[in-house]
Automatic annotation (TrEMBL):
SUPFAM superfamilies the record matches: Cytochrome P450 (SSF48264), Flavoproteins (SSF52218), Nucleotide-binding domain (SSF51971)
GO MF, one annotated term: heme binding
Native source organism of the sequence: Labedella phragmitis
UniProt-listed InterPro entries: Cyt_P450, Cyt_P450_B, Cyt_P450_CS, Cyt_P450_sf, FAD/NAD-bd_sf, FAD/NAD-binding_dom, Flavodoxin/NO_synth, Flavoprotein-like_sf
PROSITE patterns from the UniProt entry: CYTOCHROME_P450, FLAVODOXIN_LIKE
UniProt-listed Gene3D superfamilies: 3.40.50.360, Cytochrome P450, FAD/NAD(P)-binding domain, NAD(P)-binding Rossmann-like Domain
Similarity-based family: Belongs to the cytochrome P450 family.
Domain Flavodoxin-like: 854-995
The name this protein goes by in its record: Cytochrome P450
Length: 1014
């Protein structure tokens, strides 16, 4: 493609941009996204892809702009430098703004300030303005304390911030604006000089103290001055505006306000969606260092650019209906905090003060908070955009003590909260749907209320939903989550009733009469159809139906035969599963539970797979690890179309890197090429052509139509509820439909989350259910629980165990099991009492003693490590003082050198510590903690098929503990989820080894004591 000169947008004016930039940006994006705008004197970069490209290439798009007004107004800060100078300054700023420090130090400050300024807002009374009477002083006082300016008032910070920013934007060269800016510049320097002396004698947690603690040459005083001014300019107005816009958005969208008041976990979605919708920093500048092509437009060397975040965040090629404020929309990476090397350092401070504290406290306290009809809110700005006015009223103030309670007084506990109210009589809970969501909810209820009586129903004779019938056969590591669930069912507390369909075999009313609480976790199984002409033709199959068939689902009667040429529409993870199914070498399924006959029928003839998505790689829906797995398949050639791989350098965008890996894969792997996978980006389906069956799919691209011939088409564009579902999907985001009726899993959230997400959600939901039950006394005249034992067509947990055993015994060599494929076969096996079941695996019997107190500390994503931890606790409990610590909620200070720590950790992401435990890991690595004298042993859980990162998460924890001075004892234990070995058994073997080492130490120590006492 040859680059063209930039189109000129002479119709754009600054007053119009200030009033409402969005229609202007819509047009600029539609016309290519890169324009020369004479009135602004800059090239405006407006499309998501173009903005994104500039953020990752500082060598071409420099932040160090010639003649920068910001440098004149505030001095030369990190924001106007490129690496390596920028990096050194940024590193000096970082320690005070890290998430762990925010949690430990600043959170309490934000809480205090929120209460104080809500008090002042209330005092202000009927003519109060939410921005100027709350958001601004709240953000200013928070920043004052973080910086450590103990000699000034928050109103000084507000004045400095505004005048420094006005000077930065003084393109009109107004002398009065320069004068005000200069005055603030001098005032900041004066106050800073005073505080530098003070902090030497009174070090505290503030930024100024932290800078003083660094070696003098690291941050010379001139750099401190410039960066402090920049932080005053950027650290106050943005959280103020984020809070104001979020409040305005909620007050104007009552349904979304209700949802968040019911489910406080949604505050974070409110915050992120507000930033996407109206980015507080609407535009920042960059300058090109060479001639460069951007989105087909030539930018000459030295070109001054305006990077329009407000516009990129509304790009309709990334977000559907992008102008709508919608906290339930699919999460995609917005650019409000920027990306690349200048990504905002204060993001965690902002999240904490706005999403965790400011907004929840405001809405929790001020009952009936509302807009004022005759004093409308006003929003403005384009370089910075936010609320100019936000007059509000309210009916009553519930006071600081009432905070935390949701609007109806029943606070929904957030995920991970450990204090759970339990009802006085054992709770009776029915869960409909034995997929991951249903099973994790049952598990969480049992953990929080061990007496609870739980009945889990499923329409199929066998449990586990998509874990059994969706997750790919060659991902046995993921499927091994089922082991946890097998342990869940016991006749007394948690019973399974398979083959019972809600609607057909039992009604919701009947369940509600019989149980204190009913949870609907029935998932979403209908494939969404493509909304284009021809989508009804034969030869088109949904990815859900296809993966069910491949997994031996009893209701997928026929097995589709896809022919030679297949078009897969969609770029999500399910589409990636489909591409793997169609292209992986049939010889390469060792250890899986694939049915080879079914695989041959589906994929035996496939030679070409076209996999087509709307977005460019950086905004595609797949996880990079899924694409890398495809890149590693033998005998597969990959061809990539329409991915602009050169705009962003390697190492900056994981999705692009994964797609690059495709283009370099397959060279010389020595395998015969069996299948070609053609990857298409940026194409939207227009129609499907064919007479009696689908013959081709036609797509629209910026360069015209693309027609791909197809023997069959697989659509992987989402899932919808089954027609008979009593609830709308994603209509009750909090999980509570009303007290007594709840929803979980994909039915609750829509078809997005992973299995670990179901586990994370289940904890919060279980706590909410128990809290509701504690508040509402249970009806006493419920039918006896025994009634449910006589439910005619049901299959119980032993029935499932018979199926499981029979399937495993029927496995051919190299396969984990051979699934029974029809309901009749499943029911026959479940009821075949001649199948002798081994005794139930209730966990370890033998108790072991250690002679020292032990803490089992776990880090888990989908619960495997927690299950192992439970077992280790049970083994040790009879003889040893044992405690359990969830590293997802722990801090390094929680580790007690007087106790031996058994660390059990899995690995996620791409060789990372499980998500929840990352703050703990980061805190260890911060260097702020010494753990001398602490002894620990490590059991790593991973999957050897991740060859480069096997068990890496546990190793990262090990390395971080050792770096803090702790000492590892005994052998390193490992479990490979793909090996088929039971993790609990592997952990017990490891524990024996540790026991021997520690036992010997204890004996030596006892001996030494004995010698001393003589
Ligand atoms: C093809 C595919 C592959 C996936 N692969 C992965 C992966 O590798 N890793 C990962 O983390 N996530 C994966 N996921 C996502 C994961 O499967 C979901 O996060 C999870 O299964 C959602 O759990 P759920 O319990 O809400 O739904 P489901 O797993 O669908 O469970 C719902 C259960 O309800 C039952 N049911 C439905 N209607 C009724 C009724 N009327 N009466 C009684 N019972 C009923 C169903 O039989 C089913 O057992 C995949 C999803 C798909 C579609
Ligand atoms: C919602 C609130 C906030 C938003 C939307 C926001 C946005 C941004 C953006 C877009 C940038 C990059 C600008 C550029 O590259 O030119 C940035 C950088 C920065 N922000 Fe924020 N910010 C917010 C809050 C804060 C807070 C509270 C602080 C400090 C306490 C802070 C400190 C910084 C710093 C120091 C940088 C410079 C980083 C660097 O150059 O490496 N920000 N912010
Ligand atoms: C998305 C995903 C990513 C994973 N990444 C890795 C990895 O990089 N290295 C590894 O050894 N195991 C990896 N695993 C395997 C898990 O660590 C393993 O299944 C473990 O038993 C899960 O334990 P948990 O349930 O406690 O999280 C991954 C699993 C999944 C589903």
């Amino acid at each position: 493609m040859t680059a063209n000169p930039a189109p000129v947008a002479d119709w754009v004016t600054i007053p119009d941009l200030y009033r409402d930039p969005f229609p202007i940006y819509d047009r600029l994006r539609a016309e290519g996204g890169v324009h020369w705008v004479p009135q602004v004197g800059r090239y405006l970069i407006t499309s998501y892809d173009a903005v994104h490209a500039t953020e990752f290439d500082q060598e071409t798009f420099s932040a160090n702009e010639e003649g920068s007004l910001q440098i004149r107004a505030m001095g030369h800060s990190m924001l106007r430098r490129d690496d390596p100078e920028h990096y050194a300054e940024r590193a000096a700023w970082q320690p005070v703004l890290r998430p762990g420090v925010v949690k430990r130090t600043w959170r309490a400050v934000f809480e205090r300030n929120a209460d104080r300024y809500i008090d002042e807002l209330v005092e202000r009374g009927p003519d109060a303005d939410l921005i100027w009477d709350f958001a601004a002083p709240f953000a200013a006082e928070n920043l004052r304390e973080i910086l450590g300016f103990h000699n000034v008032h928050q109103t000084d910070l507000q004045r400095w911030s505004q005048t420094l920013i006005d000077a930065t934007g003084n393109y009109a060269d107004d002398p009065a604006v320069w004068e005000l800016g200069r005055r603030s510049f001098d005032e900041v320097d004066l106050a800073l000089d005073e505080m530098l002396t003070w902090h030497v004698k009174h070090p505290d947690h503030s930024l100024i103290s932290s800078l003083l603690a660094m070696p003098g040459d690291r941050m010379p005083i001139e750099k401190i001055r410039a960066n402090i001014k920049m932080t005053i300019g950027g650290g106050l107005n943005e959280p103020r505006d984020a809070l104001g816009v979020a409040a305005w958005a909620l007050l104007s969208h009552p349904d979304q306000r209700r949802a968040v008041e019911e489910d406080p976990a949604l505050w974070s979605a409110v915050f992120e969606e507000s930033l996407r919708w109206i980015a507080p920093i609407g535009l920042y500048s960059r300058q090109t260092t060479r001639d460069v092509e951007l989105s087909g437009v030539l930018l000459p060397a030295g070109a001054k650019l305006g990077i329009c975040i407000l516009s990129a965040n509304r790009d309709e090629s990334v977000w559907d209906d992008a102008d709508r404020f919608d906290i339930r929309r699919e999460v995609k990476p917005h650019l409000a905090f920027s990306k690349g090397v200048h990504v905002c350092l204060g993001a965690w401070v902002a999240r904490s003060q706005v999403a965790d504290i400011g907004l929840p406290r405001l809405f929790g306290r001020l009952r009936g908070l509302d807009l004022v009809a005759d004093r409308p809110a006003q929003v403005g700005g384009w370089v910075f955009r936010g609320m100019l006015k936000l007059p509000v009223q309210w009916s009553s103030d519930s006071g600081a003590a009432g905070v935390g309670a949701a609007a109806d007084g029943a606070a929904a506990p957030t995920a991970g909260s450990t204090e759970t109210a339990t009802p006085s009589t054992p709770a009776r809970v029915a869960i409909v749907g034995a997929g991951p969501a249903g099973c994790f909810t049952a598990q969480a209820l049992r953990r929080a209320a061990p007496d609870a009586q739980i009945d889990v129903f499923d329409a199929l004779p066998v449990p586990y939903g998509l874990l059994r019938y969706g997750v790919a056969s060659d991902h046995q590591g993921t499927k091994s989550v089922a082991r946890q669930f097998d342990r869940l069912f016991d006749p007394e507390h948690t019973r399974f009733h398979g083959n019972v369909r809600l609607g057909a075999d039992v009604t919701l009313e009947r369940l509600r009469e019989s149980f204190d609480a009913v949870v609907l976790a029935t998932g979403l199984h209908s494939d969404v159809r493509l909304a284009v002409p021809g989508s009804e033709l034969p030869g088109i199959v949904g990815a859900g139906a296809l993966t069910r068939a491949a997994n031996g689902h009893p209701d997928e009667a026929g097995t589709p035969h896809l022919g030679e040429n297949v078009v897969v529409v969609g770029h999500g993870n399910v589409a990636m599963d489909v591409v793997r199914l169609l292209s992986r070498d049939p010889q390469d399924y060792d250890g899986s539970d694939i049915d080879d006959d079914v695989l041959r029928e589906i994929a035996g003839d496939v030679r070409t797979v076209h996999v087509v998505g709307r977005s460019l790689p950086s905004a595609a829906r797949f996880d990079p690890v899924m694409v890398r797995e495809l890149a590693g398949l033998a005998g597969v050639r990959h061809v990539v179309h329409g991915a602009d791989l050169d705009t962003v350098p390697a190492g900056k965008d994981a999705r692009l890197d994964a797609v690059r890996e495709l283009t370099s894969s397959g060279d010389g792997d020595g395998h015969r090429e069996r299948v070609t996978v053609e990857w298409w980006f940026g194409l939207s389906p227009v129609r499907i052509e064919g007479d009696a069956a689908a013959e081709a799919v036609v797509f629209a691209s910026p360069d015209g139509e693309v027609r791909l011939a197809a023997d069959s088409v697989v659509t992987a564009v989402g899932f919808a509820a089954d027609p008979e579902s009593p609830l709308e999907p994603a209509a009750h985001a909090s999980g509570r439909v009303e007290p007594g009726l709840y929803t979980a899993g994909w039915l609750r959230r829509g078809p997005r989350g992973t299995i670990p997400d179901q586990r994370a959600d289940a904890r919060g939901l279980a706590a909410m259910i128990l809290e509701d039950l504690a508040a509402h006394t249970s009806a006493e005249d419920r039918p006896a629980r025994r009634e449910w034992e006589r439910l005619a067509p049901a299959v119980d947990a032993d029935g499932w165990r018979r199926v499981d055993l029979q399937e495993r015994l029927a496995a051919v060599p190299g396969r984990e099991r051979r699934k029974l494929r029809s309901r009749e076969e499943l029911l026959a096996a479940a009821r075949d009492e001649s199948i002798a079941l081994p005794p139930r695996d209730d966990g370890p019997a033998a108790a072991r003693g250690f002679g020292v107190p032990v803490t089992v500390a776990f880090a888990s994503e989908s619960g495997g490590a927690e299950l192992v931890t439970d077992d280790l606790r049970r083994v040790l409990e009879p003889t040893t003082d044992v405690r359990v610590l969830d590293l997802g909620e722990a801090r390094p200070d929680d580790l007690d050198p007087a106790r031996l720590h058994l660390v059990v950790s899995s690995t996620y992401g791409d060789g990372e510590v499980p998500t929840a435990a990352r703050p703990f890991h980061a805190a260890l690595r911060s260097g702020a903690h010494r753990l001398d004298g602490l002894r620990y042993a490590v059991f790593g859980m991973g999957d050897r098929s991740y060859t480069k990162t096997y068990s890496r998460g546990s190793e990262l924890l090990d390395e971080a503990l050792a770096a803090c001075g702790a000492e590892r004892v005994g052998e390193y234990g490992r479990h490979d989820a793909g090996s088929g070995a039971d993790p609990v058994e592997a952990a017990q073997e490891w524990l024996d080894g540790i026991g021997e080492v520690v036992g010997a130490d204890v004996a030596v120590a006892a001996g030494a004591d004995a010698t001393r006492s003589v």
